[in-house]
């Protein structure tokens, strides 16, 4: 930081007045950004002259380490894996997947050599696949899950699919990577999309789809996994979906007949899973004005902090003048980004659509249950929204009304694309 | 409370409008507060903070910003409702001590601080034989949690000021001898009076928020992140702002001096000279900083700065 001449500081100090201090309520409301504009101006005026009140406000700031979870606006990377529930559920799913693969491999070996041979010959026709298909019998066992009705669409793609399988299995060890993907729900659609399309290829799907496909042969897997948490059901869903898509391709009639009952079971379990996914998270605002989400119907709440980075360290190094560039640069590095405790006042959730608003015209929207947020800055004929957002109401995902502390009503007919003021 | 102020009509009608709604939201029913007493509390709060000329919509908006649930809880506690106290204690007993610890940074002082606040909350001070709880002054403008922290911080700052008064005499004598006669400003014909008035003018021209940022950063030596959190903006915003402010202040004073017929080089020199003995004054103002740790850190930083500060060409 550049320096300021000493007499500036002296004068800054000496202009301190002796008027009465704002009371604790006002100072609190100031720090929480819930003052009316005129009051805020007065409090700031006082604070600019009163070192004691500045001290009080600073001391009373909420601890920055209160922030439990950070979902950054720009990169949501990493934060999801930090949730204990998710971490454990992922471990469990992984374990279930591994054991089911093991069991099936064992069973298969003792069951029908015929089946294996049929599959292997099918694989051997594809030039790129043969050795890997041999080394990895479990992947070919996914074929057991083939629902008869999808068979007709399969042939044109069969070749590509078969080629993609060796890749998949080699990528299985990377399967933990998809656990870190910020947004499991999108994983579902992507896994499905790549499965029905040109096979599983490219970076985004490589880790995810194989992990999902591996446990598919056991119809019991989805049911086991559903119990733990909604986030888990998302993965299970992708397992099932991937099972359907990957198995479309290489078909052996014998196998289909062996497993005829299974597809129907799968369909029913997929339905229960989808129901569970639809039961969207619950939302709330804490007394500190932080956004909270519960994935277990309100038993536990986790704070969601939009648009902030966690404090890595706090340093009071060189609070005064850093006279040289190096000093100011060092300051910037040392003082890591401190999370800003935004104060939310209003909230509404409509399925996966979540709107949250609060102090200083803050308005955020998430279309995916809070995984990604966008800041919405309503403006009507060039006039932006100001003041605090005090209530948000949506009659459906597109039509909504926002009320501000200054009594204005802002209406959107198209999920926040355009606004009109009343 | 503020019985002196007359209740304005718009406030009354706004309360009449909203009281049913807010009463339901506050959960007063379980706390032994009737709707009438709740309306009276709202009326108190509104007359305390709203200007006399407030309109109906202003009053409505104001009432809607109140944290009515916590307001009801605090006032029910103040009125001595047992279930309210149960809720209050389960929610805040632990937290209160943690806040105190963060403010006082030392175990026994924190306990002391928290205990004295407890006593006040419970109401040891009596007026006309009645216990007056400090919770009766909570108005729901901010969160109850934040209010508790603020009250603790106020108490802490008050105590600190008291104790400082006891020791400061000796220190002043010591320090005074050190700073009695600063060297006469070399080669500068700019008198300090003119500098001061120029500075005052430049500072006064700033918006108060900017003055607050300058004071918090330079005078109080707070980290940028903390200043940012005080104002509810991002740290990078404050960082940019401080840089800009310091530069523009400097420029303003410089042009001011030049307008008064002082040569550019001379004016610059006047500013630079001050930068070099800046540390003298800052050390003194930092001596009033509450935390010894902060003090020594700042001092080191200043030494560094002093060494690396480029000497001005003359």
Q: How do the strands line up in the largest sheet of chain B? A: 1-2
Count of extended strands of chain A: 14
Strand content of chain A: 5-15%
Main sheet overview of chain A? 4 strands, mixed
Q: What is the tally of beta strands of chain B?
A: 2
Helix content of chain B: over 70%
Cα radius of gyration of chain B in angstroms: 26 Å
Number of helices of chain A: 18
- Could you report the average pLDDT of chain B, rounded to the nearest whole number? 76
Oligomeric state of the chains in view = heterodimer
State which percent range the strand residues of chain B make up: under 5%
Widest beta sheet: strand line-up of chain A: 1-4-3-2
> Major sheet of chain B, described briefly?
2 strands, antiparallel
End-to-end Cα distance of chain B, whole Å, is 63 Å
The number of helical runs of chain B is: 14
Instruction: Label the overall shape of chain A.
Output: elongated
What would you say this structure looks like, in words?
The complex is a heterodimer of chains A (422) and B (314). Chain A has 422 residues and is of the alpha+beta class. Chain A has 18 helices and 14 strands. In chain A, the strands form 4 sheets. In chain A, strands 1-4-3-2 form a 4-stranded mixed β-sheet, with no helix packed on it. The longest helix of chain A has 28 residues. The two termini of chain A are 44 Å apart. Chain B is built from 14 helices and 2 strands, in the order ααααααββαααααααα. Chain B is mainly alpha-helical and 314 residues long. In chain B, strand 1 and strand 2 form a beta hairpin. The interface between A and B is large, with 87 and 97 residues.
List the keywords.
heterodimer, A: 422 residues, alpha+beta, four-stranded mixed beta sheet, four-stranded antiparallel beta sheet, 18 helices, B: 314 residues, mainly alpha, 14 helices, 1% strand, disordered C terminus
Quick structural gist:
The complex is a heterodimer of chains A (422) and B (314). Chain A is of the alpha+beta class. Chain A has helices at 6-14, 24-31, 37-49, 51-59, 84-111, 113-124, 130-135, 137-141, 155-170, 175-179, 184-196, 202-206, 208-213, 220-226, 230-247, 253-258, 262-278, 325-334; strands at 69-71, 282-285, 291-294, 302-306, 344-350, 353-358, 362-366, 374-375, 379-380, 383-384, 389-394, 400-404, 409-412, 420-421.
């Amino acid at each position: 930081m550049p320096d300021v001449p000493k007499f500036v500081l002296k004068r800054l100090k000496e202009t301190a007045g002796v008027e009465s201090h704002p009371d604790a309520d006002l100072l609190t409301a100031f720090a929480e950004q819930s003052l009316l504009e005129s009051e805020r101006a007065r409090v700031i005026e006082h604070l600019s002259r009163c070192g004691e009140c500045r001290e009080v406000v600073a001391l009373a700031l909420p601890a920055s380490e209160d922030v439990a979870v950070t979902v950054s606006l720009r990169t949501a990377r990493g934060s999801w894996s930090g949730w204990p529930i998710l971490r454990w559920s992922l471990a469990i799913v992984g374990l279930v997947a591994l054991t089911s693969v093991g069991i099936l491999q064992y069973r298969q070996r003792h069951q029908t050599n015929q089946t294996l041979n049929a599959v292997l010959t099918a694989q051997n026709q594809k030039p790129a696949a043969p050795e890997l298909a041999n080394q990895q019998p479990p992947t070919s066992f996914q074929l057991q899950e083939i629902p008869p009705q999808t068979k007709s669409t399969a042939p044109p793609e069969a070749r590509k699919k078969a080629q993609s399988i060796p890749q998949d299995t080699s990528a299985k060890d990377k399967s933990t990577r998809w656990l870190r993907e910020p947004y499991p729900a999108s994983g579902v659609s992507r896994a499905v999309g790549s499965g029905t399309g040109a096979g599983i290829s490219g970076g985004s799907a490589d880790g995810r789809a194989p992990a999902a496909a591996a446990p598919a042969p056991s119809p019991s897997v989805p049911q086991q996994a559903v119990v733990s948490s909604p986030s888990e059901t998302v993965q299970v869903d992708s397992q099932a979906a991937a099972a359907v898509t990957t198995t479309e391709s290489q078909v052996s009639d014998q196998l289909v007949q062996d497993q005829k009952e299974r597809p129907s079971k799968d369909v029913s379990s997929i339905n229960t899973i989808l129901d569970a996914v639809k039961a969207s998270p619950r939302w709330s605002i804490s007394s500190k004005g932080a956004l909270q989400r519960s994935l277990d119907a309100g038993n536990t709440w986790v704070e969601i902090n939009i648009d902030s980075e966690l404090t890595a360290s706090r340093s009071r190094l060189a609070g005064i003048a850093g006279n040289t560039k190096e000093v100011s640069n060092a300051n910037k590095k040392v003082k890591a980004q401190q999370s800003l405790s935004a104060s939310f006042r209003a909230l509404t959730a409509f399925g996966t659509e979540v709107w949250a608003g609060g102090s200083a015209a803050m308005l955020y929207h998430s279309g995916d249950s809070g995984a990604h947020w966008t800041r919405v800055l309503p403006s009507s004929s060039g006039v932006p929204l100001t003041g605090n957002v005090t209530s948000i109401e949506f009659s459906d995902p597109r039509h909504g009304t926002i009320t501000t502390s200054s009594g204005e009503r802002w209406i959107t007919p198209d999920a926040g694309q355009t606004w009109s003021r009343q | 409370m503020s019985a002196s102020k007359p209740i304005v009509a718009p406030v009354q009608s706004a309360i009449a409008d909203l009281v049913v709604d807010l009463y339901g939201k506050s959960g007063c029913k379980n706390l032994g507060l009737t709707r009438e007493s709740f309306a009276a509390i709202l009326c108190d709060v509104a007359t305390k903070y709203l200007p006399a000329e407030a309109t109906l919509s202003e009053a409505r908006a104001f009432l809607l910003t109140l944290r009515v649930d916590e307001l009801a809880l605090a006032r029910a506690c103040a009125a001595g409702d047992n279930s309210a106290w149960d809720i209050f204690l389960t929610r805040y007993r632990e937290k209160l001590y943690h806040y105190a610890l963060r403010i006082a940074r030392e175990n026994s002082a924190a306990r002391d601080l928290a205990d004295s606040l407890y006593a006040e909350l419970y109401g040891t001070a009596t007026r006309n034989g009645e216990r007056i709880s400090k919770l009766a002054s909570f108005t729901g403008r901010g969160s109850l949690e934040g209010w508790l922290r603020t009250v603790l911080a106020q108490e802490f700052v008050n105590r600190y000021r008291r104790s400082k008064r006891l020791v400061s005499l000796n220190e002043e004598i010591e320090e005074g001898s050190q700073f009695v006669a600063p060297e006469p400003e070399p080669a500068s014909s700019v008198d300090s009076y003119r500098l001061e008035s120029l500075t005052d003018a430049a500072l006064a021209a700033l918006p108060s928020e900017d003055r607050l940022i300058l004071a918090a950063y330079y005078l109080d030596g707070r980290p940028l992140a903390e200043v940012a959190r005080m104002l509810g903006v991002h740290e990078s915003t404050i960082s940019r702002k401080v840089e800009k402010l310091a530069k523009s202040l400097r420029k303003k004073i410089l042009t001011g001096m030049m307008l008064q017929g002082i040569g550019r080089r001379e004016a610059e020199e006047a500013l630079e000279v001050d930068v070099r003995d800046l540390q003298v004054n800052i050390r003194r103002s930092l001596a009033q900083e509450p935390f010894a740790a902060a003090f020594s850190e700042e001092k080191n930083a200043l030494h560094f700065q002093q060494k690396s500060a480029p000497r001005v060409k003359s």
